[in-house]
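Hi P.,

Sorry for the delay on this. The queue was packed all week, but I finally got your sequence through. Input first:
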Amino acid sequence: MVEFTVPEVDYTRYTNRQLAAVPLAVLAVALLVIGGWYVATGAPVDPGVDFTGGTELRIATDAPQTEVSAAFSSPPESIRSVPSENTYVLTFQAGSGVSTSQLEQDAEAAGYEVRSIDTVSANFGADTQLLALGGVAVAFLGMSILVFAMFRTFVPSIAVVISAFSDIVIPVALMNILGIELSLGTVAALLMLIGYSVDSDILLNNHVLRRSGDFYESTYRAMQTGVTMTLTSIAAMIVMTITATLFGIQLLAAIGTVLVFGLTADLMNTYMLNVTLLRWWKFEGVAR
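Then the structure:
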């Protein structure tokens, strides 16, 4: 059995500015990416069919992708291959002027077997998007209130909130770069990241504020549990992402990718940014 040991970091070698510079710089770049995407497209991240409405068609064929795309009277918004099943998944946005019956006729005329066809109306998609994003906002607000109620001190509480905010923003920016659309699955992944982030940050804050021992000893004790827990989750998500990609399960692959990047960001934010804010609060005459 492989034993994993968390190395002890000598935080005294680094100033608060040095530790905070990296996570704050990454957060700033992520916000710029999201802001630029919003200016260019009108949305901070591209919404998927779940939110915009449209039709998803799954067909079985071994024909090349260019031939499949040209077989339909209306060009698909996106097309992806599932090699393990010799199938293609085509997406047609709402308002493209093509009906499900027409899509089935085009597929059958080209000799393709229609495996499944799912349609979401534009109105239903808009309502779902509002509900999903509202859920994320409410979850984040509730988390923030709970954290402030637990610690009742501004700096340790805001450290948790900032870390959780960054853990969400960074994966959203990477979703734009990697072409991952916002869907019910990726929204669920963002909600899970709030939970992961709060878990690791509260673990750190509890050890520093409420356990015996000096600051660096308490930080290392928290890291022994927190880093091991987060790295285990990252490894599990990497396996899930690779497996889902090989079998063409796009939803699970997207969820796994978002969680891998979010959990990696959580390691950085918790043990660099959060530690910096706590150390400043403890040693710069701010703690009471």
